[in-house]
């Protein structure tokens, strides 16, 4: 009996020990699972909420400004190329295709040689595209006037550029060309024809057009233009009207009136006075 009791106690002890050993594993697993869930929840909380970090001094870098000079030849490069001539300037223009100073120098170099007139006009067109204000440049003007009085093929190009590709400055150059002495037949005829083109007329404006008509009119034929000149003329018109005031200068002894058809010049003086008064008023309004 005593032995049976001892056996029973032993069985109970074994069972209790088994329960204890078995029970710790689920608990440990549960604790580990809970810890992992806590870490996961913390991570989710960090993802969902903004992270506030202590502010630190922010060093900002000034933006790099790219200046126009990066596409321009240096003065030293341009001077060296000018010294060597058109070929070197052409190479420099390939490196700096949008540099007006390089292109202007190349136009001048090309214009010194008739065989390069066509290249000069191509370069003028490029220059006017890059820098339209170069239409007022004296070197460009000189090149165009020289080429316009050169061989017919390139002269036609120069005249067309003046007429249609330089804004209001172009017709002014055509007028200067027609007013100059020693102009060849071809440029004179083509420039005269260009002044009849509606597009050129629009660019020229009324002041230049009446001046050109006065220039082209012979002697007393200018009388027909007096009324128009009084309304639209400017200094250029006065340049053609004032010489008509002279009552002497013709015949071998230069004592005869060259424009006797103008009579006492009353209408002429009224036209000159009207232009002068209007120009004075325009000048005063600009001050």
Mind explaining what this structure looks like?
- This protein is mainly alpha-helical.
- Among the domains are: 70-204, Serine Threonine Protein Phosphatase 5, Tetratricopeptide repeat, CATH 1.25.40; 217-281, no CATH class.
- 67% of the residues lie in helices and 0% in strands.
- It has helices at 2-48, 75-84, 86-95, 100-111, 117-130, 138-148, 152-164, 169-179, 185-194, 198-204, 206-216, 226-232, 235-241, 266-286.
- Helix 11 packs parallel to helix 13.
- The radius of gyration is 46 Å and the shape is elongated.
The oligomerization state is: single chain
Low-confidence runs of at least 5 consecutive residues = 1-69
How does the major sheet shape up?
none
**What's the alpha carbon Rg, rounded to whole Å?**
46 Å
Helix content: 55-70%
Tell me, what's the shape?
elongated
Q: How is this fold's topology laid out?
A:
Layout: H1 2-48, H2 75-84, H3 86-95, H4 100-111, H5 117-130, H6 138-148, H7 152-164, H8 169-179, H9 185-194, H10 198-204, H11 206-216, H12 226-232, H13 235-241, H14 266-286
Helix pairs in contact: 2-3, 3-4, 4-5, 4-6, 5-6, 5-7, 6-7, 7-8, 7-9, 8-9, 8-10, 11-13, 12-14
Summarize the structure.
By secondary structure, the chain is mainly alpha-helical. 67% of the residues lie in helices and 0% in strands.
Features:
Serine Threonine Protein Phosphatase 5, Tetratricopeptide repeat, 287 residues, mainly alpha, 67% helix, 0% strand
